[in-house]
Amino acid sequence: MTLQRRRLLLASPALALTSLGAMTVTDSAAARPASAKFAYAETGIADLQGRLGTGRLTARTLVLAYLSRIETNDARGPRLQSVIETNPEAVTIAAELDRERRLNRPRSALHGIPVLVKDNLASADRMQTTAGSLALAREFGGVTPPRDSFVIARLRAAGAIVLGKTNMSEWANIRSTRSTSGWSARGGLVRNPYALDRNASGSSSGTAAAVAASFATVGIGTETDGSIVSPAAANGLVGLKPTVGLVSRDGIIPISHSQDTAGPMARSVADAAMLLSVIAGPDPRDAATERAPTGIDYATYLDRDGLRGARIGVLRDSLTGHPATDAVFDQALALLTARGAVLVDPVTIPSASELGRHEIEVLLTEFKAGLATYLQEFAPGAAVQTLADVIAFNQRHAAREMPHFGQELFLRAEETRGLADPDYLAALATCRRLAREDGLDAALATHRLDALVAPTRGPAWLTDLIHGDRHGRGYSSPSAVAGYPHLTLPMGEVAGLPVNLSFAGAAWSEPTLIRLAYAFEQAAQARMVPAFARSTPLSA
Fold first, then answer.
1. What predicted TM-score, i.e. pTM, was given to this entire model?
2. Residue 203 among the catalytic residues
């Protein structure tokens, strides 16, 4: 869920802080810098495949190197707490893929490439699938899913190595209006690798921080509203929220079947495109994928001159209000023009301000129904089988599950009346009209635009477990509620913290967004390597 949640729910003051536990960053372990030298820092898929193909590198060696880096900098050292667990079979799988490479051609561009996945994607292996909650952990009666989620199955079939599961905002940030992004009872608080006292954003916080810190080559996040693009922005990454239905949601712990999707998180547009090529496509288990195109190699849309002649609308209403961030955005606009884009400035989406109250009714209703369906299929025999069970579990284990914030959204969701409720159906229809016909479709068609641009959000905020998130304004909801694609990538920095540019488009316009974003990326060269600093100036 994430970025827009606080705005649309009008958050109230936070619960009293009972323990700082997972977020203290002044201790000696957190203050120690990350290892300065890592052979595969910032290394992308194409580079690694070149080394793997010539025998200069093996997948086993690569996996061992990443596992060592995770142990040194995630579990110890700066203690990012971004990886909730590593795959005990990863080294064995890598060795088998090395053997296969010697005998046959690689399966795909991801053959032998380590990938980290968010802890809400079911995996039928020795790892757990918990959405960060103790309610699904094995110590409290959690079970191994009977099969892989669609995305993990596609990764394995492509020869990718599922290196581990990443920490996340528990239950993808749908539990409380007063939560702190990146915190889960099972994994603690994810720290931002650019400044350890800053928030990594959520709910795909662990994937974002881990990929930014080069704990894996690429990662998988999920989004309902902002949960890929906001943490990608806070951690200086490329994040791509696809059109709902391009990537199957089968086996993903849900919030909303109207808005949920998995998507790539990477350090470059090229890596995001290659990862999307593997995970996209129809799936008979997810009706929303019936229209998904098949067999597309999204890397073929990487074009350094891709901005020339493109008509791009500027969403001035989505400026962050943070002067330094908005100044960087203006510089990005100048670069778009210099690379041949035609800017229509400003473009407005008047209906965007009306989305909030309708969206939350849709999300809460669909969450209650979708969670029960997921638990029945992917956690049969687990101690919790319904939202009511999870609520009761949290109450019994409040000291561990609710030390910082409560579950008021769970309580509201439990009161919803199901997917046939007329009020829910009316809210869903209103959301689609406001976000699509009266929103993005109207803006794109009226001005004959290829895409829209906006700053994704301001720099990462200071983590505060007492008051919860203080993230400011940004762009995500229109694309999220419409179910349309949204790609974010680095555009610059503010006080040593990355800030990102958003490209938003019509349904199924991923090729266009990739083309535009790649051209901007190659011209801007704005990706920053994280320094694992203890803090950054408070003015940011």
1. 0.94
2. yes
